[in-house]
Amino acid sequence: MESTYFKRFRMEVDLVRERRWFGAQLPSGFEFVPWNEALLDVHARTKFSAFRAEIDAIVFPCLGRLEGCRRLMREIRRKPGFLPEATWLVARRQAARGQPATRFSPLEWCGTIQGVIDRAGLGSIQNVGILPGARGLGLGSSLIAEALAGFAAAGVRRATLEVTAENTAAIRLYHRLGFRRTKTLYKSVDQVRREQQRQEAAVDRLPLGVPSSEAAKVRDSLAASDRQEMRGVVATLVSALVSGMVVAEEPTDMADSEAAVNEPAAVPAGRGPLAVSRTS
Fold first, then answer.
1. Is residue 269 part of a domain?
2. Which of 93, 105, 132, 195 lies 20 to 30 Å from 209 when distance is taken between CA atoms?
3. How many domains does the chain have?
């Protein structure tokens, strides 16, 4: 049986010698929102909205499902090299009709990016996605610049990302920011799907044959971890509310049910989000 392959480029930038990315500014009315544990699901939902109807969701099927994006965000967060300073949301305040936006106005989430320092010490941009209605405003370049600044502040000298070859607009943007192509990769959709299914099974279920006593220990450990994580989430939510962060109401098309999600469709060359997951 034939398999579909997509060509992808790995691109790299020297953060010491190449400074074209430095100083990028958000357009008026938008703001950066730093990493916060309470915002993990917001990153997942923003990622889903950005990628679900794009070619990247065909290459990486998890991007075409809300629950898949949630799993991906949890996996990124758990990586040893996860870097909060390179992980951002970009948003704008929603003003009532005829009224100016204030710091208490709800936030409309427009873009997301995540950064990880890999085992080789390179800064690895995991995803950068911009919602369709917010594209063409320079948000992508500003998010990338903010992530690269986070890598540089952490002492990272080089940063990498991957991009589907058909996304010519993103490739041009990366060139403008100083990225250079270092490798060409070919991704099999079937292979990626099988790998993601294995990863999901490893996360969701204990291995077969685990003694009941060991399984109990694992469950107790996970329960303790969940309680600690929940205390952290509650604390950060309280902190966010105190600081005046008001989250916009979830759109109706962001329901948890995957039955409401249309099948992702390929897009013409040069369209779509800027980069894609490197967890395959």
1. no
2. 195
3. 1
